[in-house]
Amino acid sequence: MNSPAQTQAARRRFALVPGLLALCCAAAGLGLAAHHPLSSWGAVLAWLALAALAARFWLQAPLILLGFLPLLGLAPWSGWISFEEMDLLALAVAAGGYLAWGLHPLSRRKHLAVSRRGLLLTPGLGLLLLLWAGAMLLALQRGFADAGGFAFGWFQGYQEPMNSWRVLKSFFLALLLLPLWLEAAAREPRRLSQSLQWGMVLALLGIGLAALWERLAFPGLLNFSSDYRTTALFWEMHVGGAALDASLAMTAPFALLALLRARRAWQFLALMGLGLMAAYVAMSTFSRIVYLALPLSFALLLGLRARQARMPGHSQVSAPLASEQRLGLALWGLGFLGAAVLVFVGGGYRGLAALMGAALLSLGLPPALWQQLPAQRRMIWLLALAAAGLLLGLGAFLAQVVPKSAYVLYALVLLLNLALLVWHSQRPPFLDTLGATLVLGAWMCLLGCVVVVAGYWGGWVAGAMAGVAVLTLALLFLVMLQRPSLWPWTSQDRNSWRRRGLTLTALLIGAAGVAALDGGNYLLHRVGNSQADSQFRMQHWRQSLGLLGSAEDQLLGKGAGRFLAQQYFSGLNDSHVGDYRLRQEEGRNYLRLSAGQHMLGSGEMFRIWQRVDMPQGAVSLQLRLRTSQTLQLHIELCERHLIYPDNCLVQQREIPAGADWQPLQLELGNAPLKSGPAYAPRMVAFALAVATPLGQLDIAELGLRDGQGRSLLANGDFSQQMAHWFFSSDRFHMAWHAKNLAVHLLFEQGWLGLGLFGIALTLALWNLSLGAGRQHPLAPALAAALLGLLVVGAADSLLDAPRVGLMFYTLLLFALCLQAGPEREASSPQSKEA
User: Fold this and answer.
1) H/E element holding 94?
2) What is the band of 806 on the pLDDT scale with cuts at 50, 70, 90?
3) DSSP states of 613-677
4) Angle at Cα 478 formed by Cα 477 and Cα 482, nearest 5°?
5) What are the protein's UniProt keywords (predicted)?
């Protein structure tokens, strides 16, 4: 046996590896933070705070990493794209986690048994990851070589060497964190898995809040007719792409799983609200592939979870529904959605809101309705229908005589329904029949008020359509009243409130979908244009893969990050996009701004821009520039979040050719800009573009002043390279992306990279559905998230967005290593100490 001194020495040696990793990550993280374009000291302090947080809660580090990920993207302010805040976050989590591990090492004997760990890296998986990392390094080297050799730069663009590192760094950051996840799983696997779940839920919350702000600030919360597609804080969509779509597809399944597993009412309600917000955000993307990805991933999650429920030892939150109850629930849901279509067409949002109020109250109808004799049930229904008919006639008359009376009447009947439900829940037993009659009568009257509201808003045709809808619902209810086994809510199930809440959430999401489809011309246009768009994309894929000429290119790819550059030099007009490069002359920087070869409409121009403060009064612009050809310079000052300028000051000025630098001063006028409300402020950006195809313009100095004499631009002489400057191609996106995940991987990494990716993904899905991880509580959500990303990946590249890549690779590594362990594990003193 080893002596205590030998044991302590072994512990110290074991702590050396994580300690060295912590030091390396700290050096890299602090070095990056010290070069942050916005504030080096602020970035250093924020990095230290994150590292300290990660060290204190290192067993829950996935919560910190994933929860902050969608919000930490400051490229439109900083100008950083090769490096970004995601790198600082990952390095802070790694440095803090490895430091805590090094300070609190455990001997192998004190880890949980292998069978009890939530994650296990087998030798086979280790070999696969080693081969995959080698293939990634080869793709990185080929990318550098294709760009003319490695050249470091803080602000390089998408055609320069550092772009190869930009698109691959997510994989290596995820690998860097893998040993930390494995060590946490060897100590407290349940805490680790919970942190992964809640990290993804927190990420979805961040996405939702950012998207709500964007919709409130710019197009409007209920505006589904304009072609404004939500981007949230995913700056990677400045040249198109589906970063938001992929993030929704990966995070939403974890929120659904958390909702299904929630045991406390407040938690259930909070997650219901999050689900509704996520559904709204998904609809506001106008992305057809998201509308397909989310239902498919949810179906997989529910299927895997249902199979888990049949496995021995699985605890269920609520009893499953009988087959007839499932049929009744489906009929009731479809009935309401069909009614929602008819009501919304004529009655608009007001009629739909009234119908959803009736849907909400239908979930509270008491089981006493089905406990009567058949004759009593028929009598109750007839009396309720008669009362509803009388109130409908009265309401229709009042709506013609008294303005707004339809809404007042609906509100009064709604309050009556609520009061009766509360009263009936506390009734004496002998009042069952009377109470049930009153409750059902009041609810039927509320259905009648839906017709009144719709007719008042949209006229008699809208009222007639709403009448058909509510009469159909009433008849459907009669069928269910005559067959009590169809009704899904029973008094015996104490957790039926959960099922009612889930049903209400589904109905509200369905109603929102009806409103978006019927009320949004843009969405209908996109749905109708699906076939033509798919043919255009297939042509784009064939053209892209046609650039893989040699056998070596097909096996190994053109190199990471080289898709845009290869398209640029392909000779096709539509692939020759705009660009910018920093140059030097006499020791001073200047910017060379180039236009693409394609047609340059307002949305197709390649812009460089900078966020500025809200200008006051008249705005003037000073430039020093030169060009070898006469061209048109496009200047704009607009309200802008990312790719949709609004309320602009726009000028186009012809710049004559000349070999010398030319000074230029322009009066742009008074900006018609609005700051927006405090809870949804609008942002302003100044932008420049060359509006002449293939035009090149050199810019040495820029100055922008408002009527109060304030200088609005930072780094106008480019002395800090591209700090504070950003770029976008607002509506010309195809040349920037392969628009398919498999095509993207095949083009940049060849069959080698695509094959290893496919093997890893297949093994992960096998492990979650049929392998060692199938009984793990997180397996359904992980499988659904991976499927969602694959579906979205059928229409976009995805992994050329680093934050999407880091989220995906983290989930993939968890899925590969996941194994089912006991739901509970004993907490050791060592784990509490850590």
Assistant:
1) helix 85-103
2) very high
3) PPP-SEEEEEEEEEESS-EEEEEEEEE-SSS--EEEEEEEEEE--EEEEEEEEEEEEE-------
4) 115
5) Membrane, Transmembrane, Transmembrane helix
Q: Would you list the DSSP string of 564-618?
A: HHHHHTSS-GGG---EEEEEEETTEEEEEEE--SS---TTTSEEEEEEEPPP-SE
Is the pLDDT confidence value at 219 over 80? yes
> Could you read off the pLDDT of 283-321 as tens digits, one per residue?
888 888 998 999 999 999 999 998 888 876 555 555 566
Please, which contacts does 762-767 make with residues 24 or more away whose CB atoms are closer than 8 Å?
A: 763/125, 763/128, 763/816, 764/812, 764/815, 764/816, 765/815, 767/815, 767/816, 767/818
pLDDT at 546 over 70: yes
Alpha-carbon distance of 64 to 200, in angstroms, equals 10
Closest CA to 289 of 517, 544, 534: 534
Six token digits for residue 467: 């009448």
For residues 618 and 667, is the Cβ–Cβ distance under 8 A? yes
398-401, Cβ contacts within 8 angstroms, sequence gap of 24 or more: 399/452, 399/455, 399/456
Which of residues 572 and 259 earns the better pLDDT score?
A: 259
In percent, the amount of the chain with pLDDT more than 70 equals 85
Q: Which residue shows structure tokens 């236009």?
A: 595
Q: How many whole angstroms separate alpha carbon 831 and alpha carbon 834?
A: 5
Distance CA 324, CA 306 (A): 18
Distance CA 798, CA 45 (A): 32
Q: Which tokens go with 395? A: 């309401």
pLDDT of residue 804: 97
Type of residue found at 430: F
User: Distance between alpha carbon 29 and the CA centroid of its chain, in Å?
Assistant: 26
pLDDT digits (tens, 9 = 90+) for 733-785: 888 999 999 999 999 999 999 999 999 999 999 999 999 999 999 999 999 99
Residue closest to 534 by CA, chosen among 737, 812, 794:
794
Distances (CA, A) of 224 to 213, 260, 521, 676, 815: 16, 30, 7, 20, 37
Q: What is the pLDDT of residue 62?
A: 94
Closest by CA to 636, choosing from 721, 730, 735, 714, is 730
Tokens 């702590």, residue located = 15
- For residue 711, the cross-strand partners are 705
Q: Are strands 631-639 and 696-705 parallel, antiparallel or unpaired?
A: unpaired
According to the model, what pLDDT value does residue 122 have?
A: 92
The residues spanned by each domain of the chain are 1-105, 119-319+544-575+735-834, 324-492, 578-731
- Res. 519: pLDDT tops 80: no
Give the CB-side neighbour count of residue 793, counting CA atoms within 13 A.
Answer: 19
Residue 243 structure tokens: 């970063």
- What pLDDT band is residue 427 in, cutting at 50, 70 and 90? low
Residues 6+ apart with CB under 8 A from 426: none
User: In DSSP terms, which residues pair with 703 in a beta bridge?
Assistant: 622
Contact between residue 684 and residue 612 where contact means Cβ atoms under 8 Å apart: yes
Tell me the C-alpha distance between 234 and 243, whole Å.
6
Burial class of 89 by CB neighbour count within 10 A (0 to 12, 13 to 18, 19+): buried
Q: What is the CATH number of domain 578-731?
A: 2.60.120.260
Q: Which is more confidently placed, 251 or 543?
A: 251
DSSP class of 51? H
What is the spatial distance between Cα 746 and Cα 245, in angstroms, rounded to a whole number?
22
Q: Report the 10 Å Cβ neighbour count for 123.
A: 7
d(CA 556, CA 750): 4
**Is residue 498 scored above 70 in pLDDT?**
yes
Which whole-number Å values give the CA distances from 28 to 35, 47, 88, 89, 153, in the listed order? 11, 11, 9, 11, 16
**In sequence order, which residues have a C-beta less than 8 Å from that of residue 288 and are 6 or more positions away?**
526, 527, 530, 795
